[in-house]
Amino acid sequence: MSMVNHETTAVGTVDLRTVRDYRERARELLEPHLFDNMFGTDDDAIGRTDNSNRAAFESLAFRPRILRDVSSRSLATTVLGQRLEVPIMLGPIGDARRVHPDGELATIRAANAAGISMVLSMVSSVSATEIIEAASGPVWTQLYVLKDRAATGRLVEHLAEVGSAALVVTVDNPGIISKDVNVGRPPQDWGTLKELGILETLAVRRSMIENIDPAVTWKDIDWLRSLTQLPIVLKGIRTPEDATLCREHGVDGLVLSNHGGHTLGDQTGTVARLPEIVEAAGETEVYLDGGIREGADVLAALALGARAVLLGRAQYWGLTVAGEAGLTHVLEILRRELDKTMMFCGVTDLQQVDHRLLTSVVGDRFIE
Amino acid sequence: MSMVNHETTAVGTVDLRTVRDYRERARELLEPHLFDNMFGTDDDAIGRTDNSNRAAFESLAFRPRILRDVSSRSLATTVLGQRLEVPIMLGPIGDARRVHPDGELATIRAANAAGISMVLSMVSSVSATEIIEAASGPVWTQLYVLKDRAATGRLVEHLAEVGSAALVVTVDNPGIISKDVNVGRPPQDWGTLKELGILETLAVRRSMIENIDPAVTWKDIDWLRSLTQLPIVLKGIRTPEDATLCREHGVDGLVLSNHGGHTLGDQTGTVARLPEIVEAAGETEVYLDGGIREGADVLAALALGARAVLLGRAQYWGLTVAGEAGLTHVLEILRRELDKTMMFCGVTDLQQVDHRLLTSVVGDRFIE
Amino acid sequence: MSMVNHETTAVGTVDLRTVRDYRERARELLEPHLFDNMFGTDDDAIGRTDNSNRAAFESLAFRPRILRDVSSRSLATTVLGQRLEVPIMLGPIGDARRVHPDGELATIRAANAAGISMVLSMVSSVSATEIIEAASGPVWTQLYVLKDRAATGRLVEHLAEVGSAALVVTVDNPGIISKDVNVGRPPQDWGTLKELGILETLAVRRSMIENIDPAVTWKDIDWLRSLTQLPIVLKGIRTPEDATLCREHGVDGLVLSNHGGHTLGDQTGTVARLPEIVEAAGETEVYLDGGIREGADVLAALALGARAVLLGRAQYWGLTVAGEAGLTHVLEILRRELDKTMMFCGVTDLQQVDHRLLTSVVGDRFIE
Amino acid sequence: MSMVNHETTAVGTVDLRTVRDYRERARELLEPHLFDNMFGTDDDAIGRTDNSNRAAFESLAFRPRILRDVSSRSLATTVLGQRLEVPIMLGPIGDARRVHPDGELATIRAANAAGISMVLSMVSSVSATEIIEAASGPVWTQLYVLKDRAATGRLVEHLAEVGSAALVVTVDNPGIISKDVNVGRPPQDWGTLKELGILETLAVRRSMIENIDPAVTWKDIDWLRSLTQLPIVLKGIRTPEDATLCREHGVDGLVLSNHGGHTLGDQTGTVARLPEIVEAAGETEVYLDGGIREGADVLAALALGARAVLLGRAQYWGLTVAGEAGLTHVLEILRRELDKTMMFCGVTDLQQVDHRLLTSVVGDRFIE
Question: What is the pTM of this model?
Answer without folding.
Answer: 0.94
